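Intended use. Records like the one below are meant for learning the mapping from a protein sequence to its folded structure. Do not use them to infer anything beyond what is encoded.
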Amino acid sequence: MKFFLYLILLFVFFTACKEDESEHMQEDDEVITGEQDSSVFEINIDDSDLAILPKDGGGIHKAVPLGSTSANFGYYVYTPENYTVDGPEYPLLVFLHGWGANLGNEPLSKVLEHGPPKLIKKGRWKPSYPFIVVTPQLKTLYWEPFQVHKFIEYLMDTYQINPNRIYLTGLSLGGGGCWHYAGGIKDNYAAAIVPICARGAEFLIDNLKEIPVWAFHGNQDTTVDPLDNFGSVTLVRAINNANPKVKARITLFPFLKHDSWTATYNGDGRNLAQYYDTYNVDIYDWMLTYKKK
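Structure written out for the chain above:
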């Protein structure tokens, strides 16, 4: 009799587990294959402060080692052709690198391996409007928001930067730096952010809903799960549920792993399969759609 009751309980247990698993799979399937925006996404740039900038046919990309200035990071800085210290103010793009460029005694040139600085190095940096591009090198384990804030203030004091057009982007650890800077500091300088393959946190949402966000992630990413623990998909959903000033965007590449940044930064991702918000416009043009008030 006891054995018979044991079999019944065992059957009930496995049936319940199977139902839970089925429900979980259905929830995940809904997340992946739910409503998707396949419409043509259009942007409209107010270029009243951009049209005056000289065309950039190729500028100067130079290293500024830690300790050679008052900056709290060593960094690479790209200044466009015809940039002058007393000329017009340019948009600023700050790129936060990922894990690896900050380990041990990595040379400053390590920050050139990915993202916009790599495009500059390869001669493939050709946005519609010129940017000053700055890539700091992290020497600690994470991008501390107030250190990023302090660094941006140094850049504003040092270069001809349009204070209404400061943009942040980063990959992996650097993408997390974007989430935490824009979400962790209420009076931050970011006009828009593009975090890639990164995780945020719930407490960041109140500030993130005030700033335009376009996140990118690979669906096959096993390093940072886009669907768990405030990965890109879940965090963007949470922001949009909080009634943001601008709808946060998320583009998920179904066949990419952790490296979803290469296809995003060089634009090749526009030719790949995508979930959710369509990637059919230049991300640098998208940034310029927004200005800080």
